[in-house]
TrEMBL record:
This is Hemerythrin-like domain-containing protein. Pfam families: Hemerythrin (PF01814). Residues 123-266 form the Hemerythrin-like domain. It comes from Corchorus capsularis.
Length: 332
């Protein structure tokens, strides 16, 4: 973690939720070869490749774009060892899970019984929460290093690490702002139609945290031009660490309140199926940056099962071209 902990295998900037798979029994050394045959532009192909990323498997992808279709429209073929399956998403995912059950790629069934908008919001909370925790730990590492000039090869020189730290925070800030706008423009108005004033406190929370979020970004810019290791540099890092902890605390309380008091009420709004679908798709319309150039960054904050659930939700959108474009980003 950071430049201060040379004994750690990963720096704070590199640790991702799927590191938790180390708790499971590792795959045998001689794991069977895995081959995937399908179109490189197919959303189904990208989906299966994304699932296999979390299984610690060596995958050989074979494009079939130059061959006439033989497996049905959009179908792909997956070979694991001497066995193969050709079919659609559920068939292929079951085949993968039967062969390699850990880590699991499915959330509990409770996710299937809640409104789609609730699922989207909940998963976005999970990613933001994890990224904030990582930034807090990373800031603590940078502050603890002080003026020492030890270099961690994983992140480069201290100044290089600070630039990486600032870049990651800028990406997180963009996701957080889009998420807040999604709630204010899409989720909260639905609740306000049923009970005026219900979301007043949540909107006030957004307004309160925005100056803190932008202030941290400005502080990072200021530190970036300071001489490394000076008292002012060290004090600036300490202040950023403190402000990030405060932001983390505010966000956790805010998310907990939304998930406990607001989101469950979406089930009581009596929206028709068509209206629920429209609101659900408006959520994705409001998150254009997150679902384009920040999509992989966003998914890094989710466990494998959560990432698969989010991709499943994306697949429910009616605009299949946009769906295919979004899912294809995860294997690039």
């Amino acid at each position: 973690m950071g430049n201060c902990f040379s004994q750690s295998k990963n720096s704070t900037s590199e640790i991702a939720p799927y590191d938790w798979i180390r708790h499971f029994k590792p795959l045998p050394v001689a794991a069977p070869p895995v081959r995937l045959y399908g179109s490189a532009s197919s959303s189904l192909t990208a989906y299966v490749r994304f699932a296999l990323l979390h299984k610690n498997l060596s995958l050989q992808f074979v494009s079939t774009d130059d061959k006439p279709p033989s497996n049905g429209d959009g179908a792909v073929t997956l070979e694991i060892g001497s066995e193969s399956v050709c079919g659609q998403r559920e068939t292929l995912l079951k085949f993968i899970e039967d062969k390699f059950p850990h880590p699991p790629l499915r959330l509990n069934e409770v996710m299937e019984t809640t409104p789609l908008v609730v699922n989207v919001t909940w998963l976005q909370h999970r990613s933001i929460t994890w990224h904030l925790e990582r930034m807090v730990r990373w800031a603590e590492d940078l502050s603890r290093c002080g003026g020492r000039r030890r270099v961690d090869p994983a992140v480069g020189s201290p100044r290089m690490e600070l630039k990486k730290f600032a870049k990651d925070y800028s990406q997180l800030l963009e996701v957080m702002l889009e998420h807040a706008q999604m709630e204010e423009r899409v989720v909260f108005p639905v609740l306000e139609m049923a009970d005026r004033g219900l979301c007043k406190a949540a909107n006030e929370e957004h307004a309160r945290d925005l100056p803190i979020m932008n202030g941290i970004k400005e502080d990072m810019k200021s530190i970036g031009v300071m001489d490394y290791g000076t008292p002012a540099y060290h004090e600036g890092l300490s202040n950023i660490s403190t402000r990030l902890k405060s932001l983390q605390k505010h966000c956790k309380e805010h998310f907990d309140e939304e998930e406990k008091d607001l989101l469950p009420l979406l089930e009581a709004t009596d929206l028709s199926k068509e209206q629920q679908t429209r609101v659900f798709e408006q959520c994705f319309d409001a998150m254009k940056a997150t679902h384009s150039h920040l999509f992989n960054f966003f998914l890094e904050g989710l466990l494998p099962s959560e990432g698969m659930e989010y991709v499943d939700l994306i697949s429910k959108c009616s605009d299949k071209d946009r769906t295919a474009s979004m899912i294809s980003l995860i294997t690039k």
